[in-house]
């Protein structure tokens, strides 16, 4: 049977992969974007900037980019929470490695992983909420100016990362996937007479 820490490790690595994909969306990976519009011959918006489809030119790779009046510039700095959440997931995965090898010896590591996964969820949820707000407002502004706009794959990847992060933090907090027994007898003492 699989160790509960191994299952959490796999979920943490999967969440890390989702957060890395969101973080390195447009302009790094141009097929991953939050919003695409036909403004200026076609534009795609990501975490670190935006790209013009027609000219194959991208903005500088920076947090807090501005494209007024469609994109609210100061809100794009909140996108820093995606790499922060990925960092918490990396630390959480590192915390789980000793727990996979020695599951009975990691009382402090269980608590540390619970805190790291909770912080990762809070960062991911805050970044996702701002992302949805920012690009929904931008979409409405673009539609008001008679341009087409649609969500891209990054917003759905961010939703999946947020949901998986919630599951991980709830499991770590409740202790169900990390060996919490809720008052039952420990496994190594069960059925010994």
TrEMBL record:
The keyword Transmembrane helix applies. Pfam families: SUR7. The chain crosses the membrane at residues 6-29, 79-101, 108-135, 155-178. Keywords: Membrane, Transmembrane, Transmembrane helix. The keyword Transport does not apply. GO terms for cellular component: cell division site; growing cell tip; plasma membrane. This is Pali-domain-containing protein. It comes from Trametes coccinea (strain BRFM310).
